[in-house]
Amino acid sequence: MHWLSRLVVGALLLPIYFYQHVISPCTPPSCRFTPTCSEYARQALIKHGPLKGLALAIWRILRCNPWGGSGYDPVP
């Protein structure tokens, strides 16, 4: 991965890490999928880089609702 992509991915991962380690432990589990949406976003960014990873993460968050699916949904 290009150094600029790594820098952007690192910046995008910071709020995810903050959520996973500070906010999420204080709230009851609510994600319908495995892995959780935040973990999916983290994995997608690391695996696919900032553009495709962010697009996959946003699509996943949009699907995580009472009318969406549930269950095991790994990063492609």
TrEMBL record:
UniProt main location, coarse: membrane
GO cellular component: plasma membrane
Alphabetically ordered keywords of this record: Cell membrane, Membrane
Localization per record: Cell membrane
SMART domains: Haemolytic
Amino-acid biosynthesis is among the record's keywords: no
InterPro entries referenced in this protein's UniProt entry, alphabetically: Membr_insert_effic_factor_YidD
Pfam families xrefs: YidD
Membrane topology (UniProt): Peripheral membrane protein
Signal peptide as annotated in the record: none
Family: Belongs to the UPF0161 family.
Function in brief: Could be involved in insertion of integral membrane proteins into the membrane.
Name recorded for this polypeptide: Putative membrane protein insertion efficiency factor
Source organism: Segatella salivae F0493
Lineage, opening ranks: Bacteria, Pseudomonadati, Bacteroidota, Bacteroidia, Bacteroidales
